[in-house]
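Standup notes
- HV: blocked on the assembly model, inputs below
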Amino acid sequence: MSVYLEMMLVFAMIGLFCFGGGYGILPFIQGEVIGRGWMAAQEFVNVIAVSESTPGPLGINVATYVGFKMGGIVGAMFSTVGLMLPAFFLVMLVTRILQTETGEKVWKRLTVGIRPVVVGLIFYAAWSIAKTVLLQQNGTGVSLDFLGILLAAIGFVAIHKWKLHPVILIGTAAILGAFLAG
Amino acid sequence: MQELWKLFWIFFRIGAFTFGGGYVMIPIIQHEISEKHKLIDEVDLSEILVIAQSLPGMMAVNAATSVGFRLKGKVGAIVCALGVALPSFLIIVFLANLIIRYSENSHVLGAFQWVRAVVVGMIVAAAVKMGKPCLHNKKQMVLLAVALLLAIGQVHPVLLILGGALAGWWITRPEEEGGRQ
């Protein structure tokens, strides 16, 4: 199978099963995108940062980036259209069903179970991402990146407690990192 | 044709100027579609948007597709979805070029090194925020924990989500079924 078609199918599957807003795609990236060698874990976190600092949904940004990297503009089109495809069918077929009383009731019952599962999956994805970012590989083995842990803690508090806008947080980290990291 | 262009342009602007994803877009879509252009009345639109939020996929794309489908059928759906997605597509293609070209630059490397660390904190904050509503419900807490354990055990997310749907069906079954005696 050509990589174009494979990307289209993989992103269509992600489009069909990602629940819970922007970060709903996280659970699929490790296995389906990084696992296939389409991008490195660190690269994925870079794309999240770029995505948070530019307009538009994270899913579209990730699909476009991966597609572009693997096959230029045409690749980006295949992966992004793949991601969007399920939405067409769902909107056309399911919307009418969900507007009926029974349909709405059934869907509500299913989402009672889907929601906590998605949260569990996102916690696991957050853990895998934290591991790749905050553990340093060196000659003898792995060690903790203490500066990274401090920055992650600041990031958590900035969003969770201070409700800082992500663009400001990422912009500040980028400017400071560009000159201080080494 | 002119109306399709108008719809495309409305959603293109929404896609180009809203940071922070789907939830930020909702009030802007309401303003543009109901108040400014009076294309769909507010009650109908909010019904469409609620469904768009509960369906899987990118919420912004779902919302644009629904609005387009309601107004102009399949062609309208495609036009609106492309409109809302195109700005991010173009921005990322442009930035991907730059990122790949300058990925060896020491300042770029340093910037991304710090940014990655704060992004980890942001993702954890988002997960905590999403998890909060589940804290009030014991059954949902159990589901969350089971999903986390199975994810650690490398069970595929699609299976877990389908399992979650079944579990949701099971835990919300009506109590009085069959008249317990």
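- HV (later): unblocked. Chain B touches chain A through 94 residues (CB under 8 Å). Residues 104-129 of chain B form one domain.
- Next: hand off to the docking folks.
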